[in-house]
Amino acid sequence: MAMNEIALFKGVRIQPYFKYIDFIFAGVFAFIFFAYRIYQLVQGYQNKYKSFEVAQVYQYFKPHFLYLIIGSLVIFVIFKIIAQLLIRFKEKDLAEMIETQGFHNRTVTQKRTEFLDIDLKKTEYDYYPILFFKRGRKKFILHIKKDGSRFQDHYLELESIIEPMFNCELIEKRHIGRYLRYEFMPLKYKKRIVMNGEQNSQVIDYDTKIYITRQIIWDFVKAPHGLVTGITGGGKTYFLFYIIRELFRRQAEIRLLDPKISDLSFMKRVIGSDKVADTKGQILKQLREANDEMESRFRLMNESEQYQIGNDFRNFDLSPFFIIFDEVTAFTSTLDKKELQEMNDYLINIIMKGRQAGVFMFLTAQRPDADVIKGNVRDQLGLRVSLGNLSSDGYRMTFGQTDKEFQPIHESDIGRGYITILGQYNDPIVFDAPLMEQYDFVEDVKQILSEKE
């Protein structure tokens, strides 16, 4: 028998009676109290009387009956409340889920005896899924057996039930032999980064990893380029500020393209007007120069005597070069056919080739347009983020075809959305973007830039 077939390594198997586990839990403690008090009374009786007489025993125990019953009930109620409010057995919830989803399939036949007028019930078929539950540190794991039943399609998409049920998110899902393994993390453990002005502004050399949350890390070399989508008020701008701040800390060369002259144009006063573009001509010029920079870097690396297969910009002491293109789809509506073709050529060329040269594209849009961000281009974007609620088409254009069942995000949860990172989170997971309400972005960036100098 293979190791993955041994129940010991999968946790506790969910049983039908687990839906009563809080009653069982409270009943055990009530019984312990009752048995212990009976033991004390018996000990007291034996110390007082030497003989055992029924009448005498009754008289001795009679005053204590009410205390025993009330005491046991009080203990039962207390531990029942503890089980419901503090422990909150997930095993009970899973057993109830199996019942309410109709996964427990039972066939009972009823027969009448020939000689007596009595109905006899006989269970001919009793199906219950083989589901294991295991607690871990800040996570829990489910194993469910792929048994070929008519419920198997539901088992293959169990996260759509479990995530809203336990307010958690799927971290990993993989097939192990005849079992499907799910790993979930409760959202309360997904620590959000809070920007309050006390963060380290020290410049970092050759670090390509950016913390999105305290658990989610984006390595922009392993998962190059990015796309952020979201409705107005969803937190898209603040997330973009955070990314810009972290890129400056990593000594990246940054070009900001702001066709709507809204959220990024003010950065001219901070990093210089030559690095911020907000008109059609300036934006196309910056894209052309970024493309030229990429080609120049390729020539530099290929002509170097130190060049080896697998080298990238870091081996030649080149800084990351980022083009932050805000509201890219809004910009396309202002272009004629020739200008649109020129812009698309630059975007596609940089996204397809830029990683090795260290030239990266970071796009934002309220709604990604399939005519601008085509499927083959979108699939090359290593980081994809949606903030706030999107339509089903919006999610599809952001993340591509996915079986993920997106849960509604409350309007008060600013900065909450979904994220995928190539090679880490290939299916969208819920996350909370860094909180930046009590944070002076401009002053922080100025301090970082002064550190670079």
Number of helices: 14
Give the neighbour order of strands across the main sheet: 12-11-13-14-10-15-16-17
CATH level-3 fold name of the largest domain: Rossmann fold
**Terminus-to-terminus distance:** 64 Å
Please write the CATH class name of the largest domain: Alpha Beta
Structural class by SSE content: alpha/beta
What ranges have pLDDT less than 50 throughout 5 or more consecutive residues? Answer: 1-7
Q: Helical percent range?
A: 25-40%
Largest sheet: 8 strands, mixed
> Could you tell me the number of beta strands?
17
Principal-axis shape: elongated
Query: Rg from C-alpha positions?
Result: 32 Å
Mean pLDDT: 86
Identify the CATH homologous superfamily of the largest domain: P-loop containing nucleotide triphosphate hydrolases
Looking at the overall shape, the CATH architecture of the largest domain is 3-Layer(aba) Sandwich
Number of domains: 3
User: What share of the residues does DSSP label as strand, in percent?
Assistant: 15-25%
Short description:
The protein is of the alpha/beta class.
Q: How is this fold's topology laid out?
A:
Elements: E1 12-13, H1 21-48, H2 54-61, H3 65-87, H4 90-100, E2 105-112, E3 119-127, E4 131-136, E5 139-145, H5 152-155, H6 159-166, E6 168-176, E7 179-186, E8 209-211, E9 217-219, E10 226-230, H7 236-249, E11 253-257, H8 268-271, E12 276-277, H9 280-303, E13 321-325, H10 328-332, H11 337-357, E14 359-365, H12 375-378, E15 383-387, H13 392-399, E16 416-421, E17 425-432, H14 441-452
Parallel strand pairs: 10-14, 10-15, 11-12, 11-13, 13-14
Antiparallel strand pairs: 1-4, 2-3, 4-5, 5-7, 6-7, 8-9, 15-16, 16-17
